[in-house]
Amino acid sequence: LLERKAKQAAKGEIREEYYRFDLYPEYLQLKQQLASIESLGRGNPFFVPQEGINRDTTTIGGRELIDYGTYNYLGMCGDPAVSAAAKRAIERYGTSVSASRLISGEKPLHRELERAIADFVGTEDSIVYVGGHATNVTTIAHLFGQRDLILYDSLSHNSIFQGCLLSGASIVAFPHNDWQALDLILHERRDRYQRVLVAIEGVYSTDGDIPELPAFIEVKQRHKAFLMVDEAHSIGTMGRFGRGIGEHFGVAPGDVDLWMGTLSKSFASCGGYIAGSRALVEYLKYTAPGFVYSVGISPPNAASAIAALERLKAEPERVERLHERARLFSSLACEKGLNTGPSPDSVVIPILVGDSLKSVRLSNALFERGINVPFMIYPSVPQNAARLRFFLTCTHTEAQIRYTVETLGRVVNEVR
Ligand code: PMP
Predict the structure, then answer these.
(1) Residue ranges of the Aminotransferase class I/classII large domain (predicted)?
(2) Whose CA is nearest to atom 4 of ligand 1?
(3) Angle at CA of residue 113, ends 238 and 285, nearest 5°
């Protein structure tokens, strides 16, 4: 067979796109999409370097702009206490732990962070990984396999989907937030599988909406399934004290099997966690590939997440302020007749535009007027569902929000 293949190659029968990245059809398609975005005037809007700390403002090319592009919901990134904790950790432990924690990379900060997360979420324990995306991929793929079924919300984040694929389990996307459809699928299919995982998110960052968590818990209990909630955008932003979507609905933390979250948003760091039962966490710590075969979270990242958690506990009013700002944004946007999607109370506010190129032009026009807000286009969202996505932070001022919505209301009618 090898000989035949070599002969085919010699005869030129193996097409060049099979062994040259610069001829990958997918790459050529990407280049075309980038060219059409660049032709709209602002050059390439991706990988644009931003100076300083992204809070209510950012600095691009020497210009200060009002910023809605990052997930610094609680203003913890740049908080002096959080930065100081990271600096102290570097002085004490250096910049890396230089090994897997299982073998020789364990530092006191690691357990301190995991205990603090478990305490905050209300679970027996937690495990911290080096990336949020990696947390979902490795945990889901590791806990489930060929005899199992994973049901995930159709708007789930890529990391959930990748974990599902890698697991080798049967996978089914159920219609967004539709626990009744989920219930029906489980009625029909539960008995064909051993373990079943239902994966949802606490806040969906494309639309800013939330799941009806108590209903999902009822369904998972009825069918003896595991429930995983990705709190990337809900930890720190939902519930009176920022303890997440569980606090928002007043559910018992033990009713969810895997509370997943990232450290990169409300907690001003980099990494991800799974909070749950002692057994789950212990099992993952000795066996999850993305934990066992990866370096431990770096000292400054661990320390900044611990410090951000402490600040949040000491100043829960940051959460209330974030929601006040978001409510102001939404109500002004509604007055202007803008389409803010299905969830008016969210801290992630989509402005639905529809056409991809129009959303790029709109983002460019706002940029010229001192507002930085990224667009979201296909394939991140379905065709004709392009949007601008405003991430609010508790550091935005009322004046900034009024100026933004005023400008947006004007420009949206000028841009084609
Ligand atoms: N889950 C969700 C729902 C997310 O939105 C993200 C990132 N935006 C992640 C997981 C991955 O987190 P991280 O960026 O911290 O790797």
Answers:
(1) 64-408
(2) 232
(3) 105
